[in-house]
Amino acid sequence: MPILLSVNNYYYPRGGAEVVFLEHNKLFEHSGWQVIPFAMHHPKNIETPWSEYFVDEIEYGEQYNILGKLRRVPKTIYSLEARRNLSRLLTRARPDICHLHNIYHHISPSILGLLKRNGVPVVLTLHDLKLACPAYKMLTHDGICERCKGGRVYNVVVHRCVKQSYALSTLVAIETILHSLLGSYSKYVDRFVVPSRFHLEKMVEWGWDRSRFKYIPNFIDTHSFSPEYRPGKTFVYFGRLNSEKGVATLIKAAAIAGAALQIVGVGPEEAALRKLAENMKAKVDFLGYLRGDALHEVVRLSRAVVLPSELYENAPLTVMEGYALGKPVIGASIGGIPELIHEGKSGATFESGSVEGLAAVLAEFSAYKDTQISDMGRYGRSWMEREFSEKHYLGRMLEIYRELGVAGARS
To answer: Hey, what long-range contacts does 381-386 have (CB within 8 A, 24 or more apart)?
Structure first.
């Protein structure tokens, strides 16, 4: 039985990256692999007998005392604890391959050299732009930002790109410089997996060798989603209520178009967005945090899913889940979003940040015949089944594993 060492900071479905990580694990387990997780301790973690090797929790939202904060600073840059714990794990199990997801600032890249010395091939899925942008997003106070290109990482401090904090931004800049000098990623990662062509091209544009990267889109288990092709009257957004998600633009556009809107999610901008909707006299219902069947039911009753992002999105699961539920998707033309929309067939795009552009699309979709909306929903669902299935993802991933010499990586 081949063994996969699967590594991610969190071992519960905290966000999109964690969902991909956990679904990846489940898929390989069902394919006859033994999957060994390595993560951070957290009260919400899924139970596993391997948790004795996990590293101590670091939560940046927590109010640690001064001593606690100082003790955690070195760990966020280069965690000796993670190296020690993984070294102990490797004496118990000999994985055929290690697949990393998000390891930054918690587990840290300190484990990469250890894996290489133990002869374990390493694959890293890039869920964001961290290897190019120290602050992950290529986004700062004045919008899209690529100032750090060419090694000018001091810009992350100048512009306080991490939570508007000089201290955190300086810490991240130091981390970036150190691991660049150590070659943590360039020397010790054998292959990078990228879920969007946009992010792959952005990494190449920033100087990375194209041959190190492989485009493998995320997958979705459509059997877990019951579609409803009959369109409702209301548009729906579901996700975090952060400024970069463009929800303010969506509310303004909905008000202009006279479109009804439901917003599912919570976040730091919620109060401001509620006030905006009130001032604009927009027909907006804030439904709070929903997941599972409750979220699916809201989407099923909608007319279309809207993703108004104003940053370089990678491959948002929101789009795929909308299609799986039988709904067309209206998405901002930025990052990897346009790759997931077949214009006029599965949905439509608009210029990111354009209130007028989005308002026009909302009005257009409101005026479409129900048969046109349902046809787009059926197209999107069929597209997910054809190209974004578990079978396709598994085959593409096993191909990489075989290229790296994993004998047990058979389709």
So the answer is: 381/222, 381/227, 381/323, 381/324, 381/325, 381/326, 383/323, 383/342, 383/346, 384/220, 384/222, 384/320, 384/323, 384/324, 385/222
| Tens digit of each residue's pLDDT (9 = 90 or more) over 92-112 | 999 999 999 999 988 999 999
Q: pLDDT (tens digit, 9 = 90+) per residue, 300-315?
A: 999 999 999 999 999 9
Q: Comparing 3-127+190-219+389-403 with 222-387, is the CATH topology the same? A: yes
Ordered alpha helix ranges (H), 330-389: 355-367, 370-387
CATH number of 222-387: 3.40.50.2000
Report the Cα–Cα distance between both ends of the chain, in Å, rounded. Answer: 14
Judge whether residue 321 has pLDDT over 50: yes
Would you kindly state where each structural domain of the chain is located, as residue ranges? Answer: 3-127+190-219+389-403, 222-387
Give the pLDDT of residue 73. Answer: 66
**Fold (CATH) for 3-127+190-219+389-403:** Rossmann fold (3.40.50)
